[in-house]
């Protein structure tokens, strides 16, 4: 969305132009993409980028995850999943995840994952966002036990599926329809949501009832 | 493994020092880590790095994946998995994957994944290595159908599990023992190996019998 003239603060589309330019730059150059370059591509003064987005992380999250056309995971869609009978939530979650990120585009998924891998504070943010805000509330409603382990296995599997489809673009997974993936992968997510995961081998390490997402394991 | 004096070509430990320095640099700085910096940390002339490893990709793969203490996935261990009854291979594969990468260290896993995300030729190499060389031969022996889809779902799930444990380090997955993960995740891998994945929705897009790993989906 490059333009010739410079947009000014308050120009109705300046903020949107910055987000579009940022999305392209982050997807291409990773989390440390040049803010000056983003301003140039958006046709605005660099100070305006800083005015709208005082922190790089906020610009990144809105451009790549939130975007200009709504959040990647529309909370209303997740509410629909949540209202389904527990036994149907696995396939529904896969269908929603694949459909929404197919629509968002593989560049965004790659950019989010790259940022999460190259920047420690982004790891924490993505962890909080994906596991804490999206997956855990859903899992907590149906899980018979071990909410944290279940949430983390679900999140890890969806991210792995996304890598396969949108980053590595392995042909059979990339060519499958959302419905085919819901059928093939749904039972797996269902297993993580409500199936028997076995007993913790060390009862003293058993997790608290309250999910505590976002903490680091001791190391 | 920084040293004072310069090691010379033919010095028995020069090659190993280069690999150790490269592993640290790739884990810290990503795929485009400075080769000059690696030579400095290894105490060798930069020309010697080039002598042993004419291509960056070869240095990377040996340092990060192959390493100085053997390949990440010892082929002999995979042979053992292959000799098990089909119904026990899911859990065994998880156990082997988790145990071996725990031993290799999370830095290597992160470095491999970061490289795969930041460099297109590395995406292809990692795809070939993980899916083509390791997963597909194993899956092909037991899969009733759809070898490519099964291989790719297995590979994607293992990578996703690895991200959860070694990169994002989500606490419940990071704290689980390899045996706990074999119990919780094994049935999932088993489902992808031998379970019913449903029918392809578009029969004309059904995959050929022969696995063709490493191809890109058309886009």
From TrEMBL, chains A, B:
A Pfam family it matches: TetR_C_16
Annotated region (Disordered), positions in chain: 196-219
GO molecular function: DNA-binding transcription factor activity; transcription cis-regulatory region binding
Keyword Oxidoreductase: no
HTH tetR-type domain: residues covered: 12-71
Basic and acidic residues bias locations: 209-219
Key words of the record: DNA-binding
SUPFAM superfamilies reported in the protein's UniProt record: Homeodomain-like (SSF46689), Tetracyclin repressor-like, C-terminal domain (SSF48498)
Domain of life: Bacteria
UniProt DNA-binding region: 34-53
PANTHER family the record matches: HTH-TYPE TRANSCRIPTIONAL REGULATOR RUTR (PTHR30055), TRANSCRIPTIONAL REGULATORY PROTEIN (PTHR30055:SF235)
Protein name as catalogued: Transcriptional regulator, TetR family
Source organism (scientific name): Actinomyces ruminicola
């Amino acid at each position: 969305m490059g333009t010739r003239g410079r947009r000014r603060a308050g120009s109705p589309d300046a903020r949107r132009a910055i987000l579009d330019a940022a999305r392209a730059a982050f997807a291409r150059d990773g989390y440390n993409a040049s803010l000056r370059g983003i301003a140039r591509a958006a046709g605005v003064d660099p100070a305006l980028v800083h005015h709208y987005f005082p922190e790089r992380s906020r610009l990144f999250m809105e451009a790549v995850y939130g975007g200009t056309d709504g959040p990647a995971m529309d909370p209303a869609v997740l509410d629909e999943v949540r209202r389904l009978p527990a036994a149907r939530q696995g396939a529904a979650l896969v269908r929603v995840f694949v459909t929404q990120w197919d629509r968002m585009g593989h560049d965004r998924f790659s950019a989010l994952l790259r940022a999460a891998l190259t920047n420690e504070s982004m790891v924490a943010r993505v962890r909080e966002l994906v596991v804490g805000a999206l997956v855990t509330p859903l899992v907590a409603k149906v899980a018979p036990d071990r909410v944290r382990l279940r949430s983390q296995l679900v999140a890890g599997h969806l991210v792995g599926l996304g890598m396969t489809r949108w980053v590595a673009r392995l042909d059979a997974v990339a060519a499958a329809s959302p419905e085919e993936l819901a059928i093939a992968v749904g039972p797996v997510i269902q297993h993580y949501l409500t199936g028997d995961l076995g007993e913790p081998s060390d009862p003293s390490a058993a997790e608290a009832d309250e999910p505590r997402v976002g903490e680091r394991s001791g190391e």
